[in-house]
Amino acid sequence: MGMPERQSSRLVASPLVEVYDVVCRAPRSGSSALELTTVPQIALPRRGVFIVQTRGESVVVDTNTALVFGLDEGYRATHPADGGDECTVLVLPPDVLEEALGSISGRRVGVRPLDHLAVCLVTRALREPSADRLDAEDAALLLLSSLSRAFAERTTDDRSRLVHAQRLRVERARVLLASSPGARWDLGTLGRALRCSPFHLARQFRAATGETISRYLLRLRLGRSRRAACRGRAGPRSAGDRHGLRPSQPLQRSLPRDLRDHANASTRHADQAEARRVAGGHHPRPLT
Description:
- The chain is α+β, with helices and mostly antiparallel strands.
- Among the domains are: 7-154, Jelly Rolls (Sandwich); 158-210.
- The protein contains ten helices and ten strands.
């Protein structure tokens, strides 16, 4: 991580998973120097917005998204707004990442509000020096299990029907919204900023992201509120109570109950699917 404005703290060091808290204070700027990911990793933004130029396109990354960097993938980063960004980064062996997400190829997907909340809470809990290694590994992999649904549900049919200029317009709209989520946006203002009919902008945004502009903006605003709660401004206990957290082990209580329930359900579905494949004569490739 070669940018001087970027600080990276390793929260979990394990052969199974490493977790980093990455804080970037870069001002509004153009493209950075080319960087290379030597191991697959998942970037989970907690605050801010940045643009990654990789695989021949520009990808906007904000708190509504997760970004996978593939093995030996080159990229450049751009900061379209002041204030920098904060991310939690999971670094995993290729076989673990492939088992969880189905592929180690680089891509961006949308995440649920619950996933963003879990990222913020788990990161906060892992900063505690008393965190047990097994508990920390368990929390990190539970978070990964939750994210696996976002990657499994990813579809590209609608997006593939947009031409390059339309996809670029949607990305520019995402930059504007994520740079100033607290502003009073309307379709007319966005359309004028992007020199596009509000009707076509709304249709293209929906095709590319699967949701309306208003809902996307609402999720960005809720993300700021979740992050404030995770930072303990209302007290860690009251913040947890508001989000339905129950006390148990130090890190497990940082995870919403329905996140844990979903992770358990995902595991059951995966086991059932594997059993059906084996019964049909299709044997899974063993991990190495």
